[in-house]
Amino acid sequence: MDIILRLADEYVLDRAWAHLLPVSAFTTASSNAAGLYNASSHVSSVASHSSAWSQLISYIPHPPLPDELLTSPVVASETIASAWPRDYLPRQIISLFVLTLVGIHALYFIFASLSYKFIFNHDMMKHPRFLKNQIKLEIQSSLAAFPLMILLTLPWFVAEVRGHTRLYDDVSEYGWGYFFLSIFLFLAFTDYCIYWIHRWEHHPICYKWLHKPHHKWIIPTPYASHAFHPLDGYAQSVPYHLFIHIFPLHRKLYLALFVFVNFWTILIHDSDMITGHPLETVINGPAHHTLHHMYFTVNYGQYFTWADRMGKSYRQPAAELDPLLEVKAAESKKTKAALGKEQ
After folding, report:
1. 3-state class of 311 per DSSP?
2. Which residues, other chains included, contact 329 with Cβ-Cβ below 8 Å and sequence gap of 6+?
3. Distances in Å between the alpha carbon of 259 and those of 108, 168, 194, 240, 266?
4. 138 close to 222: Cβ distance less than 8 angstroms
5. Which residues is 42 bridged to in the sheet?
6. N or C: where does the chain have the smaller number of CB atoms within 10 Å of the terminal CB?
7. What is the pLDDT of residue 342?
8. For the chain, which residues score pLDDT lower than 50?
9. How far apart are CA 203 and CA 219, in angstroms?
């Protein structure tokens, strides 16, 4: 998130914060002579807040301002900057919350909509266990969960942007060998952690209130990918944030993997049962996760099948388990019933 925050600050947020909390509103001189500044032809648009607004925001806490801004009305009024600099913790927290909220909505609707249009088999919506208005309910559940999930995740993001992780910028620091190895290490570590978090969420103590809301979607669509209880979604995201506190990872690679994680989460919720591909026994793909939604206690893994095999919860996808067969059976039954009425 530090890359995203840095770019957002440079192109959008610096100006936004300068407009909301301008330096001029916090200087003694500007507070005493706000009318003079507003009348001046040299006052910038950022510093042209009304006296009432300047008085109001002048009570907001801020870090110490440079002496030249405190003593010079002209300098203060012509400075297009915020009293909250980039490294000020409250600004970082608010900026990260807004950026993450916008980002997760964008990722969710873009990837889920593309998957729904081009990958998801719409015949699945005829399945007997597909709920009425399910897509609308999945989207509503996701949107309701996002704000709290983001609030819970903010401490991890703040730690990242303030440099308390093992992210690095120069590939030569660890070499290209480790760069590519860290991809597998990231996927393996997070997959194994998520396997156990996911499996523990199926324990009777917490399943009903914590994880069952996600299993409401027996035949999920890509829009169900983020339709979690907020604590559930957060718990399964912890390994991704924990990894960079334990293992070195290239900063840009981490961002790419973070996007991939969201894409993969959407992809495995397309309810397909495509079987027979060469990596089927290794990769925990959409068919495996479809079985998880149908049978609940199998295929808890996220990317690979090895944790399920070790935990004896693996179930091999098979053509005869395809939920589309139930759709065809239901359609056949309706057709026979209709023909019977005509006769």
Report:
1. coil
2. none
3. 10, 18, 17, 11, 11
4. no
5. none
6. C
7. 63
8. 28-49, 74-78
9. 22
Helix (H) or strand (E) holding 4: helix 2-8
Helix/strand/coil for 272:
coil
C-alpha separations of 257 from 93, 134, 232, 264 in Å: 23, 30, 21, 10
Q: Residue 70: what pLDDT?
A: 52
**CB of 273 closer than 8 Å to CB of 234:** no
Measure the CA–CA gap between 198 and 300, rounded to whole angstroms: 6
> What are 157-200's pLDDT values in tens digits?
999 999 999 999 999 999 999 999 999 999 999 999 999 999 99
- pLDDT of 29 reads 41
Residue with tokens 């290209």: 176
- The Cα 74–Cα 76 span in angstroms is 5
Whether the CB-CB separation of 124 and 219 falls below 8 Å is answered with yes
Which pLDDT value is given to residue 66? 67
| Count of CB atoms situated within 10 Å of the CB of 34 | 22
Buried b (16+ CB within 10 A) or exposed e, 288-305: bbbbbbbeeebbbbbbbb
Give the per-residue pLDDT at 34.
42
Six-digit token pair at 28?
A: 């003694």
pLDDT of residue 61: 79
Q: Where are the domains of the chain?
A: 89-327
- Encoded amino acid at 259, one letter: V
Contact indicator for 291, 298 with CB cutoff of 8 Å: yes
| pLDDT score at 333 | 80
pLDDT for the residue 317: 93
**Beta partners for 22?**
82
pLDDT at 80: 64
Q: How far, in Å, are 82, 104, 123, 336 from residue 329 at the CA level?
A: 65, 38, 12, 11
CA angle (131, 137, 138) in 5-degree steps: 95
Indicate if the alpha-carbon torsion angle 91, 94, 97, 101 is positive or negative. negative
